[in-house]
Specification:
Blueprint: H1 2-6, H2 22-47, E1 50-57, E2 64-73, E3 81-87, E4 92-93, H3 99-104, H4 122-128, E5 134-143, E6 147-153, E7 156-159, E8 162-165, E9 179-187, E10 200-202, E11 219-234, E12 240-255, E13 267-274, E14 277-284, H5 288-329
Parallel strand pairs: 11-13, 11-14
Antiparallel strand pairs: 1-14, 2-5, 2-9, 3-4, 3-6, 6-13, 7-8, 9-10, 9-12, 11-12
Length: 330
Protein backbone atom coordinates (compact mmCIF):
# COMPACT_ATOMS: atom_id res chain seq x y z
CA UNK A 1 0.00 0.00 0.00
CA UNK A 2 2.84 2.39 0.79
CA UNK A 3 4.30 1.83 -2.66
CA UNK A 4 0.97 2.78 -4.26
CA UNK A 5 0.73 5.87 -2.07
CA UNK A 6 4.10 6.96 -3.41
CA UNK A 7 2.61 6.98 -6.93
CA UNK A 8 -0.21 9.37 -5.95
CA UNK A 9 -0.12 12.29 -8.36
CA UNK A 10 -2.75 14.16 -6.37
CA UNK A 11 -1.25 14.83 -2.90
CA UNK A 12 -3.77 16.00 -0.34
CA UNK A 13 -3.43 19.23 1.62
CA UNK A 14 -4.70 19.62 5.15
CA UNK A 15 -7.77 21.87 5.33
CA UNK A 16 -6.02 23.95 7.95
CA UNK A 17 -3.77 25.28 5.21
CA UNK A 18 -6.61 26.42 2.93
CA UNK A 19 -7.59 30.06 2.83
CA UNK A 20 -10.77 31.14 1.10
CA UNK A 21 -11.14 34.68 -0.27
CA UNK A 22 -13.94 36.76 -1.73
CA UNK A 23 -12.07 37.21 -5.02
CA UNK A 24 -11.64 33.44 -5.22
CA UNK A 25 -15.39 33.00 -4.79
CA UNK A 26 -16.12 35.45 -7.62
CA UNK A 27 -13.62 33.71 -9.91
CA UNK A 28 -15.14 30.32 -9.02
CA UNK A 29 -18.67 31.52 -9.94
CA UNK A 30 -17.47 32.96 -13.27
CA UNK A 31 -15.49 29.80 -14.05
CA UNK A 32 -18.47 27.56 -13.20
CA UNK A 33 -20.75 29.64 -15.45
CA UNK A 34 -18.28 29.39 -18.34
CA UNK A 35 -17.89 25.64 -17.82
CA UNK A 36 -21.67 25.13 -17.92
CA UNK A 37 -22.08 27.38 -20.97
CA UNK A 38 -19.35 25.64 -22.96
CA UNK A 39 -20.53 22.20 -21.84
CA UNK A 40 -24.09 22.73 -23.13
CA UNK A 41 -22.72 24.29 -26.31
CA UNK A 42 -20.57 21.21 -26.88
CA UNK A 43 -23.53 18.94 -26.05
CA UNK A 44 -25.69 20.73 -28.63
CA UNK A 45 -23.02 20.27 -31.29
CA UNK A 46 -22.70 16.60 -30.35
CA UNK A 47 -26.43 15.93 -30.59
CA UNK A 48 -26.93 17.90 -33.84
CA UNK A 49 -25.78 15.99 -36.94
CA UNK A 50 -23.03 17.59 -38.98
CA UNK A 51 -23.08 17.47 -42.78
CA UNK A 52 -20.12 17.01 -45.07
CA UNK A 53 -20.15 18.09 -48.72
CA UNK A 54 -18.13 16.40 -51.44
CA UNK A 55 -18.01 17.05 -55.18
CA UNK A 56 -17.69 14.06 -57.52
CA UNK A 57 -18.20 13.45 -61.23
CA UNK A 58 -21.72 12.26 -62.03
CA UNK A 59 -21.31 8.86 -63.71
CA UNK A 60 -24.99 7.81 -63.70
CA UNK A 61 -26.49 6.86 -67.06
CA UNK A 62 -29.97 6.23 -68.36
CA UNK A 63 -31.62 7.86 -65.37
CA UNK A 64 -34.77 9.94 -65.21
CA UNK A 65 -35.62 13.10 -63.30
CA UNK A 66 -38.94 13.82 -61.63
CA UNK A 67 -39.97 17.46 -62.02
CA UNK A 68 -42.49 18.52 -59.37
CA UNK A 69 -44.37 21.74 -60.08
CA UNK A 70 -47.17 23.78 -58.56
CA UNK A 71 -48.01 26.97 -60.49
CA UNK A 72 -50.97 29.35 -60.47
CA UNK A 73 -52.00 31.59 -63.39
CA UNK A 74 -54.48 34.17 -62.04
CA UNK A 75 -55.44 35.49 -65.49
CA UNK A 76 -55.15 32.43 -67.75
CA UNK A 77 -57.97 29.83 -67.83
CA UNK A 78 -57.00 26.16 -67.79
CA UNK A 79 -58.62 25.51 -71.17
CA UNK A 80 -56.25 28.09 -72.71
CA UNK A 81 -53.10 26.45 -71.41
CA UNK A 82 -50.94 23.64 -72.73
CA UNK A 83 -48.11 21.99 -70.81
CA UNK A 84 -45.34 20.54 -72.96
CA UNK A 85 -41.98 18.96 -72.17
CA UNK A 86 -39.16 18.14 -74.56
CA UNK A 87 -35.44 17.41 -74.40
CA UNK A 88 -32.40 17.29 -76.67
CA UNK A 89 -32.77 13.53 -77.13
CA UNK A 90 -35.93 14.22 -79.14
CA UNK A 91 -38.45 12.90 -76.61
CA UNK A 92 -41.57 15.04 -76.27
CA UNK A 93 -44.64 15.14 -74.09
CA UNK A 94 -47.16 17.31 -75.94
CA UNK A 95 -50.74 18.34 -75.46
CA UNK A 96 -52.85 15.77 -77.34
CA UNK A 97 -54.80 17.68 -80.01
CA UNK A 98 -56.76 16.23 -82.89
CA UNK A 99 -54.58 13.25 -83.67
CA UNK A 100 -55.58 13.07 -87.33
CA UNK A 101 -54.53 16.66 -87.99
CA UNK A 102 -51.28 16.19 -86.06
CA UNK A 103 -50.38 13.20 -88.21
CA UNK A 104 -50.96 15.29 -91.33
CA UNK A 105 -49.13 18.31 -89.88
CA UNK A 106 -52.05 20.58 -90.72
CA UNK A 107 -52.55 23.89 -88.90
CA UNK A 108 -55.99 24.47 -87.43
CA UNK A 109 -56.61 28.06 -88.42
CA UNK A 110 -60.34 28.04 -87.74
CA UNK A 111 -61.75 25.01 -85.97
CA UNK A 112 -65.32 26.22 -86.45
CA UNK A 113 -64.99 25.48 -90.18
CA UNK A 114 -63.68 21.94 -89.60
CA UNK A 115 -66.46 19.36 -89.53
CA UNK A 116 -64.67 17.01 -87.11
CA UNK A 117 -64.07 19.78 -84.54
CA UNK A 118 -67.41 21.54 -84.50
CA UNK A 119 -68.77 19.62 -81.53
CA UNK A 120 -65.63 19.16 -79.40
CA UNK A 121 -66.52 22.18 -77.21
CA UNK A 122 -62.99 23.62 -77.31
CA UNK A 123 -63.95 27.07 -78.57
CA UNK A 124 -66.94 27.14 -76.25
CA UNK A 125 -64.70 26.45 -73.23
CA UNK A 126 -62.28 29.18 -74.32
CA UNK A 127 -65.07 31.75 -74.40
CA UNK A 128 -66.81 30.51 -71.26
CA UNK A 129 -63.66 30.48 -69.11
CA UNK A 130 -62.43 33.90 -70.18
CA UNK A 131 -61.50 35.92 -67.11
CA UNK A 132 -60.81 32.86 -64.95
CA UNK A 133 -57.49 31.63 -63.57
CA UNK A 134 -55.83 28.24 -63.42
CA UNK A 135 -53.93 26.25 -60.79
CA UNK A 136 -51.75 23.48 -62.25
CA UNK A 137 -49.70 21.02 -60.25
CA UNK A 138 -48.21 17.58 -60.72
CA UNK A 139 -44.95 16.01 -61.82
CA UNK A 140 -43.15 15.10 -65.02
CA UNK A 141 -40.72 12.22 -65.51
CA UNK A 142 -38.11 13.28 -68.08
CA UNK A 143 -34.79 11.99 -69.35
CA UNK A 144 -31.68 13.08 -67.50
CA UNK A 145 -30.58 15.37 -70.34
CA UNK A 146 -31.00 19.06 -71.09
CA UNK A 147 -34.47 20.14 -72.10
CA UNK A 148 -37.38 22.40 -71.27
CA UNK A 149 -40.99 22.36 -70.20
CA UNK A 150 -43.38 25.25 -70.68
CA UNK A 151 -46.87 26.52 -70.13
CA UNK A 152 -48.20 28.24 -73.25
CA UNK A 153 -51.51 29.11 -74.86
CA UNK A 154 -53.23 26.90 -77.40
CA UNK A 155 -53.05 23.23 -78.30
CA UNK A 156 -49.56 22.09 -79.27
CA UNK A 157 -48.36 19.62 -81.87
CA UNK A 158 -45.27 18.76 -83.86
CA UNK A 159 -45.01 19.52 -87.56
CA UNK A 160 -41.77 18.12 -88.90
CA UNK A 161 -39.02 19.64 -86.78
CA UNK A 162 -41.20 22.52 -85.62
CA UNK A 163 -43.05 22.72 -82.32
CA UNK A 164 -46.28 24.64 -82.98
CA UNK A 165 -49.04 26.05 -80.80
CA UNK A 166 -52.46 26.75 -82.32
CA UNK A 167 -52.95 30.44 -81.52
CA UNK A 168 -55.88 31.01 -83.88
CA UNK A 169 -58.60 30.95 -81.16
CA UNK A 170 -56.77 33.72 -79.23
CA UNK A 171 -56.53 36.42 -81.90
CA UNK A 172 -58.86 38.70 -79.93
CA UNK A 173 -57.74 37.58 -76.46
CA UNK A 174 -55.28 39.16 -74.01
CA UNK A 175 -52.73 36.58 -72.89
CA UNK A 176 -51.53 37.69 -69.47
CA UNK A 177 -49.08 35.10 -68.10
CA UNK A 178 -48.77 36.63 -64.66
CA UNK A 179 -48.03 33.63 -62.46
CA UNK A 180 -46.92 32.39 -59.06
CA UNK A 181 -44.61 29.42 -58.63
CA UNK A 182 -45.71 27.84 -55.37
CA UNK A 183 -43.07 25.14 -55.64
CA UNK A 184 -40.68 23.70 -58.18
CA UNK A 185 -38.23 20.90 -57.50
CA UNK A 186 -36.26 18.25 -59.34
CA UNK A 187 -36.62 15.13 -57.23
CA UNK A 188 -37.34 14.37 -53.60
CA UNK A 189 -36.70 16.92 -50.83
CA UNK A 190 -34.08 16.46 -48.13
CA UNK A 191 -33.48 18.34 -44.84
CA UNK A 192 -32.28 21.87 -45.47
CA UNK A 193 -33.04 21.78 -49.20
CA UNK A 194 -33.80 25.19 -50.75
CA UNK A 195 -35.56 25.66 -54.07
CA UNK A 196 -35.00 29.24 -55.29
CA UNK A 197 -38.29 29.55 -57.17
CA UNK A 198 -40.61 28.51 -54.35
CA UNK A 199 -43.11 31.28 -53.66
CA UNK A 200 -41.94 33.49 -56.56
CA UNK A 201 -44.61 35.80 -58.04
CA UNK A 202 -44.07 37.24 -61.52
CA UNK A 203 -46.17 40.04 -63.04
CA UNK A 204 -46.18 41.14 -66.65
CA UNK A 205 -43.73 44.10 -66.54
CA UNK A 206 -44.75 47.59 -67.56
CA UNK A 207 -43.57 49.20 -70.76
CA UNK A 208 -40.62 51.50 -70.32
CA UNK A 209 -40.90 53.02 -73.78
CA UNK A 210 -43.50 53.41 -76.48
CA UNK A 211 -46.57 55.50 -77.01
CA UNK A 212 -47.95 54.74 -73.59
CA UNK A 213 -45.10 54.46 -71.06
CA UNK A 214 -46.12 52.66 -67.88
CA UNK A 215 -48.79 50.61 -69.67
CA UNK A 216 -48.54 46.84 -69.28
CA UNK A 217 -46.82 44.94 -72.06
CA UNK A 218 -49.50 43.12 -74.07
CA UNK A 219 -47.94 39.70 -73.57
CA UNK A 220 -44.58 38.02 -73.45
CA UNK A 221 -42.42 35.04 -72.64
CA UNK A 222 -41.19 34.43 -69.08
CA UNK A 223 -37.95 32.50 -69.30
CA UNK A 224 -36.24 30.62 -66.45
CA UNK A 225 -32.80 29.16 -67.11
CA UNK A 226 -32.05 26.42 -64.58
CA UNK A 227 -28.76 24.69 -63.85
CA UNK A 228 -29.64 21.36 -62.24
CA UNK A 229 -27.03 19.79 -59.96
CA UNK A 230 -27.43 16.06 -59.14
CA UNK A 231 -27.29 15.48 -55.39
CA UNK A 232 -26.97 12.45 -53.13
CA UNK A 233 -28.08 12.93 -49.53
CA UNK A 234 -27.30 10.28 -46.90
CA UNK A 235 -28.83 10.78 -43.45
CA UNK A 236 -27.34 9.55 -40.19
CA UNK A 237 -29.34 6.30 -40.50
CA UNK A 238 -27.65 5.57 -43.83
CA UNK A 239 -30.76 6.17 -45.96
CA UNK A 240 -29.79 7.59 -49.37
CA UNK A 241 -31.91 10.16 -51.24
CA UNK A 242 -31.10 10.72 -54.92
CA UNK A 243 -32.34 14.18 -55.85
CA UNK A 244 -31.27 17.44 -57.47
CA UNK A 245 -30.63 21.06 -56.54
CA UNK A 246 -30.78 23.93 -59.00
CA UNK A 247 -29.87 27.54 -59.52
CA UNK A 248 -31.84 29.92 -61.72
CA UNK A 249 -31.63 33.09 -63.78
CA UNK A 250 -34.70 34.66 -65.33
CA UNK A 251 -35.69 36.87 -68.21
CA UNK A 252 -38.82 38.37 -69.75
CA UNK A 253 -39.12 38.86 -73.50
CA UNK A 254 -41.99 40.99 -74.73
CA UNK A 255 -43.90 39.81 -77.77
CA UNK A 256 -46.73 41.19 -79.85
CA UNK A 257 -50.28 39.93 -79.63
CA UNK A 258 -51.13 37.00 -81.93
CA UNK A 259 -53.32 39.32 -84.01
CA UNK A 260 -50.29 41.52 -84.63
CA UNK A 261 -48.30 38.61 -85.98
CA UNK A 262 -46.13 38.13 -82.88
CA UNK A 263 -43.37 35.60 -83.46
CA UNK A 264 -42.39 34.99 -79.86
CA UNK A 265 -44.67 32.43 -78.23
CA UNK A 266 -46.14 33.90 -75.02
CA UNK A 267 -45.91 31.65 -71.99
CA UNK A 268 -43.78 30.52 -69.08
CA UNK A 269 -40.70 28.53 -70.11
CA UNK A 270 -38.31 26.55 -67.91
CA UNK A 271 -35.06 25.66 -69.67
CA UNK A 272 -32.91 23.24 -67.67
CA UNK A 273 -29.42 21.86 -68.14
CA UNK A 274 -27.59 19.19 -66.12
CA UNK A 275 -24.31 19.76 -64.33
CA UNK A 276 -21.63 17.04 -64.81
CA UNK A 277 -20.70 17.41 -61.14
CA UNK A 278 -22.66 15.66 -58.39
CA UNK A 279 -22.86 16.92 -54.80
CA UNK A 280 -22.51 14.21 -52.15
CA UNK A 281 -23.98 15.27 -48.78
CA UNK A 282 -23.70 13.05 -45.74
CA UNK A 283 -24.93 13.49 -42.18
CA UNK A 284 -22.40 12.58 -39.51
CA UNK A 285 -22.37 12.67 -35.74
CA UNK A 286 -19.20 13.08 -33.70
CA UNK A 287 -18.14 10.07 -31.64
CA UNK A 288 -18.77 10.01 -27.90
CA UNK A 289 -15.02 9.85 -27.25
CA UNK A 290 -14.57 13.07 -29.22
CA UNK A 291 -17.33 14.69 -27.16
CA UNK A 292 -15.78 13.44 -23.91
CA UNK A 293 -12.35 14.73 -24.93
CA UNK A 294 -13.75 18.19 -25.66
CA UNK A 295 -15.61 18.28 -22.34
CA UNK A 296 -12.45 17.34 -20.45
CA UNK A 297 -10.53 20.02 -22.32
CA UNK A 298 -13.18 22.61 -21.43
CA UNK A 299 -13.26 21.72 -17.71
CA UNK A 300 -9.50 21.33 -17.36
CA UNK A 301 -8.68 24.43 -19.36
CA UNK A 302 -11.06 26.71 -17.48
CA UNK A 303 -10.01 25.23 -14.14
CA UNK A 304 -6.32 25.81 -14.90
CA UNK A 305 -6.80 29.35 -16.21
CA UNK A 306 -9.09 30.32 -13.31
CA UNK A 307 -6.48 28.97 -10.90
CA UNK A 308 -3.81 31.16 -12.49
CA UNK A 309 -6.09 34.18 -12.33
CA UNK A 310 -6.99 33.47 -8.72
CA UNK A 311 -3.33 33.11 -7.75
CA UNK A 312 -2.43 36.35 -9.50
CA UNK A 313 -5.27 38.24 -7.83
CA UNK A 314 -4.39 36.78 -4.43
CA UNK A 315 -0.72 37.77 -4.72
CA UNK A 316 -1.73 41.25 -5.84
CA UNK A 317 -4.03 41.57 -2.81
CA UNK A 318 -1.19 40.48 -0.49
CA UNK A 319 1.21 43.03 -1.96
CA UNK A 320 -1.33 45.84 -1.65
CA UNK A 321 -2.21 44.81 1.90
CA UNK A 322 1.48 44.83 2.93
CA UNK A 323 2.02 48.27 1.42
CA UNK A 324 -1.00 49.57 3.30
CA UNK A 325 0.29 48.11 6.57
CA UNK A 326 3.79 49.61 5.99
CA UNK A 327 2.19 52.99 5.33
CA UNK A 328 0.35 52.87 8.61
CA UNK A 329 3.53 52.09 10.61
CA UNK A 330 5.64 54.75 8.93
Amino acid sequence: MSSLSALDAFPKVNEDFFKKTMSGGVITLVASFLMALLFFSELRLYLAPQTTHELVVDTSRGAHIDINFDVTFPKMPCSWLSLDAMDISGEMHLDVVREAYQAKGWVLNNVQNIEQCKDDGYLQMINEQQGEGCHMWGHLSVNKVAGNFHFAAGHSYQSGSMHIHDMAPFNDKVLDFTHKVHSLSFGQPYPGMKNPLDGVMQLVPQKATGSHPGQKAPTGMFQYFLKVVPTDYIDKAGIRTNTNQFSVTENFRESAEPAAGGRSLPGVFFFYDLSPIKVHIQEQRASFLHFLTNVCAIVGGIFAVSGLIDGTVYQAEQVIRKKIELGKHS
